[in-house]
Amino acid sequence: MYKNSRHSPNWRNLRRRLPIINENKPVDSPANEILSLIDESRTLERAGEIAASIQRAKQAQQLAQAAGDAESEATALNALAYAHIRLGHYEQARELCDQALALAGPESTARADALLDVGICAGETDDLAASEQFTQQAVDLSRQIGYDRVLVRGLHALSCGIYMPRGQFALSLAADEESLKIARSRGMPEMAWGPLLTMSWVYWLTGQRQPAESRLAELHEAVSPGSLGDGYWHFIQASLALEDGDTATARDWFAKTLSIAEANGIAENRFLARLGMSRLSRAAGDNPSAVAWAADALAIVERTGYHHLQGEALIERARAAWALGDLPAAEADLRAAIERLAPLRLDFDRAIALLLLAALFHQQGHPGAADAWREAASRLAQGGFVFLADRERSLVFPLIVAGLDSRDKSVASVSVSLLDHLQQVPAPPMRIVTLGGWQVRVGARSLEKQALRQRRSGELLGLLLTSPGRSLSFDQVADVLWPEKSSSAAQALFHHATSTLRRALEPDLPEKFPSRYLEVSEGQVTLRLPPASTVDFETFEARYRQRDWAAALAAYSGEFLPEYRYADWAVALRQRLAQWCQHALLAVAEAAFEKGHFQESLEACQKVLALEPWQEQAALLGMRACLGLENRSGALRLYKTLEKSLRDDLGVEPQDALQTLYQSLLKR
Fold first, then answer.
1. What is the pTM of this model?
2. Which of 26, 68, 143, 315 maximizes the CB count within 10 A of its CB?
3. Domains of the chain, start order
4. pLDDT digits 0-9 by tens, 278-291
């Protein structure tokens, strides 16, 4: 199976899936040599070795031409055309495809290949209508003649070249699912990487993290190191890390993307690498570098004439210019992006550009801000891109607020509609860590601990997490947090605490807009955790009850909320969790001792004693484990340490079993 450098290409399978030139000719015939060269050319292209791929295809063409074999020559021309497509040489590739079409038979595999490559060239040079027409012809012909190779490629081309750029994500996923199914079911695993790539991209683009990561894992196994797919894989991984705020990891992945791109010379990889470096520079606050990287990305795709990627590069350069404070340059780039994207019906990226332009106008108090917002909001809603509005909440919410107050009924109406749509977007899950201290993540964003120290918002969050149904009345909160205050004073403090917590969880949410996490109504406050959210102490409790001691201990990373060590509401839960942790450790120690794993048993006992120095059962088992390790002095030290802790702290002596064991050790 053709995956990466650990797996050599299966030439027999590759040969079987290429057009048969003449199976009756002898093994050493020119036709078989041509076929072998085409095999090599296509395999080298997939591996990102484009120069070598072109060389093999040219050799195959020359041999076929000399032999007067028109069909073989057409097949070689197609291989040569596709290698040039990878380099962004679309005009040259189209000329080669035209030559192939003139040579190929009306129902031949070579004709299907040529039609598909013409479609790809049309898409890459921004004639999506022609691209869809030629690609569909290639798919239809492939179904008719049973040519699975182009059927797989054609469905994938529709997905990545037509549907995805237009923002028709459901169609894109459906086409690639079919493409992937055919590739896997009909013995073409080396062709699975294309569908896997676009599906990974679409899931990432639309904020569907889990399926994106699942497909990326499959993609990683399917791509060859240094290839186009490998460059894309690194780019998406870097982008996910950047969204998580992990700039160090993102920097490493983007650097690898750049290295791959410079080695293979593929235009798409070179563009992506620079786009990624621009985004990384913006995240680091290095906006001049961000502008420079985006400009370089734009220069690459301007040379190829691909308007879709030009639009993406212009949008990125506009963001960087805006961050740099060069608002005229940002506006000019956004207008240029819209101009390039609109004729091609590239609605998704056009919606991004329109939204950014509306936000830029709003920030400047531009007289066209309302009209720009109306168009952007309409595009977001009509195109099914509300997830994009959710991703850009810091830009969208000020526009909605202004729109709701607009005297223009159409602007107010579209603002209400988009707000309704936004409220239907699933909230990002929360990851809450309480054991060892607060760590709260909302989606990819970490809450600053300082935010939870303000106006007792952190205590309110802790109270809600430990309350039945995660819901409390005003009176219940007031009795715990402000028992000495009057009702009116406590009411004001309650409002401050809920408002502060609400802002911490959703800093971009305007006042009086409904929160997706914290509901406050009729004297009741409720914490709503979206699906896939986790709370560490609840995970610990669940694993403990299942007697899954290893998983329970993995979830217990320290004392429950040490920030509120002296708060009465946290004491009982803190003590119970600590006791359960000790019990789990003792269970592990006893199981290890019974198996003769004395070192593991001793380490578990030492952890118990670190939590509670007076734990006699842990000391007794630890002493026995020391004896199993023939460590008499270690056993004596355990006893003496316990004896001192019990005498100094509790005024008692160790239990009889411990004293008996200790005395026996003294006699040895």
1. 0.74
2. 315
3. 1-146 (1.25.40.10), 430-535 (1.10.10.10), 547-666 (1.25.40.10)
4. 999 999 999 999 99
